[in-house]
Amino acid sequence: MKNKYLRLLFFSIFFITSVFLFAAEKKVARKVDEKVYKEIIYNDVLVNKWLDVTEFTEFDSMCNEIHFLDNKGNERWIEYYPNGKQHHYKTNSNWESWDIYDSNWNLIQFKATNGGYICEYDSNGNQIHYKDGPDESWSDYDSNNRKIHEKSTWGTYEEWYEYDEFGNEIHRRTLDGSEQWREYNSKGQLIHYKDTYGTEQWHEYDSAGNEIYYKDKYQETKKEYFNNLLIRVKPYPGLEEWYEYDLAGNEIHYKTKYEERWQEYDSHNNVIHFKNSKDEEYWYEYTYYDNGKIKTKKKLIISEFN
Question: Coil, helix or strand for 174?
């Protein structure tokens, strides 16, 4: 009699758990199957329309993605350590990975369904050893923690590095005889690059540090800025690009000869409407934590139900 009651209790718990999990699964599914009726601007007219939710994303209070689901059946879950570093990643297509760190939060092991790798570090946190199956590499550093030598089991790969007094890499050479040279301005920005393969590049910047000119043997590009926001790119040969922004500095319009896109934002500066000249149009809805970080995000499209 006792065993009978135990079996009954077991099956009751199993049934209740199954119902709960099924309901939870259906609840998640409805997040991308649901329809939303809302007021939108469509074809430049303010109308009420039914929209289909095509993607649903959840975030933790640090704005790390913890769950994603779309209407194509893709789903993933991500877990993090308290400091925000990723710990566990899993998909519904049977792929899973784990990130393992040492006490200084250096990644020492990455494990995944199809493999992984391990890393070792010196006392300054510089990676000195990497191993992925039969492939391995070793690195040496100078007293300023700059990598000066790297060697690996990938063929005969071996590389040496040199730096200027400010820590900028100025010379690199490999075992096969190839070399690279770099020059910088007083702000540490790259102004000239050259290598033994025939590549040569030049860069110029404005007083705010924005790149305004680029040249190599194939192309020349000029860039214009307003309030440090890129407003025009003029390559030769190539297509010109134009950008427009709102008062918060968010891009609201982009245009080339063949393509155009428009974006609108909410008070948190997150995109709520996207449209382009390829007839793609999306709307987004958000919920927020008290700290202003995104809690959930929905991507919506015009429903065929209209």
Answer: strand
> What's the rounded mean pLDDT across residues 175-200?
97
Q: Given this model, what pLDDT does residue 33 score?
A: 76
- 108-121 pLDDT, tens digit each: 999 999 999 999 99
Report which of residues 10 and 284 the model is more confident about. Answer: 284
Angle at 118 between CA 131 and CA 159, to 5 degrees: 40
Q: Do 254 and 242 touch, CB atoms closer than 8 A?
A: yes
Q: How far is CA 118 from CA 97, 134, 237, 272, in A?
A: 13, 12, 45, 41
Give the type of residue at 37.
Answer: Y
- The pair phi, psi for residue 15, each rounded to 5°, is -65, -45
- State how far the Cα of 32 lies from the Cα of 286, in Å rounded to an integer: 14
Statement: residue 5 has pLDDT above 60: no
Gap between the Cα atoms of 142 and 188, Å rounded: 20
Q: Residue 273: how many CB atoms within 10 A of its CB?
A: 17
Please state, in angstroms and rounded to a whole number, the distance separating the CA atoms of residues 62 and 54. Answer: 24
Taking CB atoms within 8 Å and a gap of at least 24, the contacts of 279-286 are 283/38, 283/40, 283/51, 285/36
| Cβ atoms 200, 190 nearer than 8 A | no
- Residue 250 three-state SS: coil
pLDDT tens across 23-71, in order? Answer: 433 344 457 878 899 999 888 889 999 999 999 999 999 999 999 999 9
User: What is the chain's Cα-based Rg?
Assistant: 27
Q: What is the pLDDT of residue 47?
A: 93
**Cβ contacts of 244 within 8 Å, gap of 6 or more:** 231, 251, 252, 253, 254
Q: End-to-end CA distance of the chain, in Å?
A: 60
Question: Does an H or E element contain 154, and which?
Answer: none
